[in-house]
Amino acid sequence: MAGQSRNVIASPCYERHLTEILAYGIDTFGYRQARKYFDTVSHLVERLDCDYTMYPECRHLATKSRMYRNIILDAHLIIYRITDVRIEVLDIIHSASSIRKIRGVRNIRL
Fold it and tell me: What distance in Å separates the CA atoms of residue 109 and residue 13, rounded to the nearest whole number?
């Protein structure tokens, strides 16, 4: 698994939630700060093609293969799944979300 470069694809759910986070950030913190956070998230996701093993297993989605990982970034978790052929970015959710909501990302199909 390690050392290989893989394609990264994002779910529509992730894309929608990232857009909502940007809109909320603009309303709450202003355009410049919201854009900075958006760019940070985007950069981390783009780097997953090579860095996908760098992040820890998502403790709420534990499997023997450790296929579910998360990036902890400020108030959000970026949850992704490692498959044999690609990296699937499933969702970005607030870190204070319920465990049920976090576990629900397992059902996202691409």
Answer: 10
**Which CA distances in Å does 52 have to 4, 17, 96?**
9, 21, 23
Whether this prediction's pTM lies above 0.85 is answered by yes
Going through the chain in order, the beta strands assigned E by DSSP cover 7-10, 68-73, 76-82, 86-94
- CA-nearest of 98, 51, 50, 105 to 81 is 105
Please count the residues of the chain. 110
Cβ burial, residue 91 (10 Å; 0-12/13-18/19+): buried
Q: List, for residues 71-96, the tens digit of each pLDDT value.
A: 999 899 999 999 999 999 999 999 88
CB atoms within 10 A of CB 105: 24
Closest CA to 57 of 77, 74, 43: 77
